[in-house]
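Structure tokens please, single chain.
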Amino acid sequence: VKLEAELLSDGRFIEPLDSRAANQLRFRGENNITNRSAVVNLIKMAEGGKGRYVHAEYDLQKDFDDLFPGVKVDVIGPPTIKQYSKIKRQRSEDKNEFWLEQALNKNFWALQAETAKSIGQEKKSKQIIRENPFPDAPSFDGENIPPYTRWFIRRLRHLRGNQLLNIVRILDRAMNNTSVILLFEISGQKMLFSGDAQIENWQFCLDNPETMEKLEDTNLYKVGHHGSRNATPKTLWNRFKNKGLDKNDPKRLKTVISTMHGKHGHSEETAVPRKTLVTELKENSEYTTTEEIKSMDMPFVDVEIDL
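Here you go.
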């Protein structure tokens, strides 16, 4: 987005974009992220062709064979729009999969309203940009522009910028569903890492019998999205064969959750981690949480698994 804004602004690509829209794109694309340092670090790590933009069923094995011999990896998600078109929309509720039977996600609808309001305000802007959108073509100047063409010029100047801004806003709302879901297998032990993937991301594998069969005998599950209500589908949880085993059974499912109590959510219904999910994890798995951390001098928890 930042690069696109620069191209649009200096005239190297299509037509010059007015500075107001260009600045918004630069800000949203580069600065308006809460984890900017992590993003910059990832970009640096991916330099020299080391990075991979992956999706469900992407073949990462050849890379792992060179770097981590003996480690098998499957990319479970996210699906592309072509693979699963429903990922374009986010569900506000799902009585069968969410760890919450009632109450809508109020934040979701608030974000939609805020987005609509900001887009509406931009459309009502009366700012007049005088730069010529076609610098090499004959044109009218200043007040001599025919009235019937003024609306076209103004809309043309803002169209590309507004399209990009809308795309960025949509991505902001759906970033969790671009999270990569990885299944690692080492010496017969399966470890499932799901990032912040939400139900739309998960649904692609829930509908795939072959993938669900792979996940059934998971030995370690990194709980998704800090234990939110829509990141560990109940269908997935119910398919885990190693949950509910005796506490002394070495095959008992291990679950790990990275979270801090009271950091997200405005009520019991929206709080993360979700209480009903945590209760289930504690009762039916060997549960470990970062809430156990006593000092930031050692900001981690140890989990052992036999390989």
